């Protein structure tokens, strides 16, 4: 699929996700897709830093997963994506196949905290975009499985500050990480393990 067709597919999925979320009153049935500008930023970040082993927590219908997979495809990378909802992950499977990116994405269905315990890693990027309250525990399990120059990302920092407070506090406790919150979309946390090579 060329870039124009892929962008058309992404626009279609985002529009359908928005329409679904307007109809649905049950949060569990909402797609809650990533904001397009945030998704595009992540795609550029991952391509430019040549990430190869990415973990996404929160697949939904695969909208963000396609952005991430297209980015790591440039480095012959792989994405592992977790979601607890089998119906949403079935949609993601279909949409990734439409995008021609299914072969580089491993989909895992179930409780993310339990699944990350068994993942071997290593991961050079982790994107937290699901249950915000569980993110600190997931981060703790993942720490031994992260590369030296790992990038940690989390969405909804500005839209749900109380729910992400525990994750941000856990980040602050980690040595050698530079952290910044970007006012992009619903707020994006970006942390990078600098190992004392940064400016600050």
UniProtKB/TrEMBL annotation:
State the InterPro entries in the record: SAM-dependent_MTases_sf, SAM_O-MeTrfase
One of the GO BP terms on file: methylation
**Could you tell me the keywords of this UniProt record?**
Methyltransferase, S-adenosyl-L-methionine, Transferase
Taxonomic superkingdom: Bacteria
Q: Name one Pfam family in it.
A: Methyltransf_3
Q: Which GO terms describe its molecular function?
A: O-methyltransferase activity
- What PANTHER family would the database entry show? PUTATIVE (AFU_ORTHOLOGUE AFUA_6G01830)-RELATED (PTHR43167)
Identify this protein by name.
Answer: O-methyltransferase
């Amino acid at each position: 699929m060329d870039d124009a067709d892929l962008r058309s597919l992404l626009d279609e999925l985002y529009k359908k996700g928005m329409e679904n979320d307007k109809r649905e009153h049950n949060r569990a049935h909402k797609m809650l897709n990533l904001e397009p500008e945030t998704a595009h930023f992540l795609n550029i970040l991952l391509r430019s830093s040549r990430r190869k082993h990415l973990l996404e927590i929160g697949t939904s219908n695969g909208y963000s997963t396609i952005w991430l997979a297209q980015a790591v495809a440039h480095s012959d990378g792989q994405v592992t994506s977790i979601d607890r909802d089998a119906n949403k992950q079935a949609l993601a499977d279909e949409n990734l196949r439409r995008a021609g990116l299914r072969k580089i994405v491993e989909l895992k269905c179930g409780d993310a905290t339990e699944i990350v315990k068994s993942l071997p890693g290593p991961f050079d990027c982790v994107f937290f975009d699901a249950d915000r309250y569980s993110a600190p525990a997931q981060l703790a399990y993942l720490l031994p499985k992260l590369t030296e120059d790992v990038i940690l990302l989390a969405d909804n920092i500005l839209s749900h500050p109380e729910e992400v407070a525990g994750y941000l506090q856990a980040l602050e406790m980690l040595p050698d990480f530079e952290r910044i919150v970007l006012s992009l979309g619903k707020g994006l946390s970006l942390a990078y393990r600098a190992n004392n090579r940064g400016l600050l």
